[in-house]
# Entry
Amino acid sequence: MNKPGSFLSKTEILDAAEHTLRRYGPDKASVTDVAKLLGVSHGTLYRHFPSKAVLREAVTERWLEERIVAPLSDIAGKPTANAFKQLGDYIAKLVELKQHYAAQDSEMFRMYAAVTEESAELVGVHIRKLLDHIALLIAQGIEQGLITGEIPAGVQAQSVLYGTARFHHPAHAYEWRRPGVLQEFSNLWALLERGLSVQ
# Structure
């Protein structure tokens, strides 16, 4: 049954687009496929999202928010007496989530990887959220006397995020299936901990 386009919600469109992208893959899925699933014309969808690229970005943004940012926000916002340990838990969870979805939700992860090359604004917002979380934990660690305060928390946050990028940035996803990669992450984190800690 066809549904009037004026009654379509953003959530309905994004749900249908995500379903379509998973079914056909990010390269083959089209706005027409999404419209067919919703029972509307593709012109109706263009009134909500002016292009396929904008629709893909919106789906990716929601996916990142729900699958990656939300669980990390829970860790960053949890009260703790040891922010240094919580920082380690946060980075380990970031690595776990990215590698999990690369393996278990490959179509959406491929789209995320593609969008990172196409939309600097979306990626910038995502990275800013992660940096804010990490900087918050580092600032708390400094207040608790656990993390060195010689370097500003924001600068340390950038070093932590970019220094561990090989284990969570989609450009490196091809490396994550290699045996020993998680041990390599553990080795790197042990080194970073020594650099962050109060000597």
